[in-house]
Amino acid sequence: MSGDHEDASISRRVRRLETLLEEKGVVTGGAVDEVLDAFLAGASPANGARVVARAWTDEAYRERLLTDGTAAVRELGFMDGSFQRLRVVENTDATHNVIVCTLCSCYPLALLGPSPGWYKSEAYRSRVVREPRSVLAEFGLRLPTSTDITVWDSSAETRYMVLPRRPEGTESLTEDELAALVTRNALIGTAAV
Amino acid sequence: MTDRFPPGTRVRTFPHDPPHHTRLPRYARGKSGVVVEPEGRAEVADVSAQGRGDAPVEQVYAVRFAARDLWGEGDHHVVLDLWESYLEACEEERDDER
Lengths: 193, 98
Known about the structure:
The structure holds two protein chains of two kinds. By secondary structure, chain A is an alpha/beta fold. Chain A has two domains: 7-39, no CATH class; 43-188, Nitrile hydratase alpha /Thiocyanate hydrolase gamma (Nitrile Hydratase, Chain A, Alpha-Beta Complex), CATH 3.90.330.10. Chain A is built from eleven helices and four strands; from the N terminus they run H-H-H-H-H-E-E-H-H-H-H-E-E-H-H. The longest helix of chain A is centred in the first third of the chain and has 17 residues, at 7-23. Chain A is globular, with a radius of gyration of 18 Å. Chain B is 9% helix and 37% strand. Chain B is mostly beta strands. Chain B contains two helices and five strands; from the N terminus they run ββαβαββ. Chain A binds chain B through residues 1-3, 85, 87, 102-103, 129-133, 145, 148-158, and chain B through 17-27, 39-40, 42, 45, 60, 62, 64, 67, 70-71, 74-83.
């Protein structure tokens, strides 16, 4: 039994728990919302894009990022205090990476922002591990058959982010301009930059 | 502590379908793959998800599977994070294809 998430029933349970915690004075009304709001306010794909732009412009940083993603993103002030490990996987001519969580919807929220609805859909989760080339084509990303595709199914405590390939003709762009090119889908691996 | 499965070890996942939560997805049960790297030690989610406080802590490994070993077809690879107790060393010869 790997992951039956009945959203409605879970939501009801969470709401009931919150109510009980408030009634018993464990948390004050709205405290949970405040914590969530503060967390989500800092969670954005702009963070992942900054990490990517730094890796594109600083070779030593790129190496640190691929060796120890957690430490490298903390250098830029992200995922501080998170217990999760981050592994950054690099796209090259030979290999394209794409991330999924087939069991639920695990995802590095702090770097990618709230996950898109399709990331949590059963269709994406079940199909991308089986036929990634077709799924990516449906996203508009057609890869040559010579490109090996690796699908990273985050089923434990590691979270994954894709380091996309730097597009050609961007040599003159600044780090900020490069960051602006990087989309959330590129960080998941369902788009190129 | 030495990891039981160093990178490059061919392993096979257990085929069991436990009556509780597990992080070994059904599509990867009883399949063979190759250890990419150890990811660090973590409480076994199968036990902690049962609300028990005695979950053992084990090494988690990133394990790379060829699509054809999972689905019988396909030219891609899938990497999964798997707790040590989901795995056993595979007697088959090592994979040269990586």
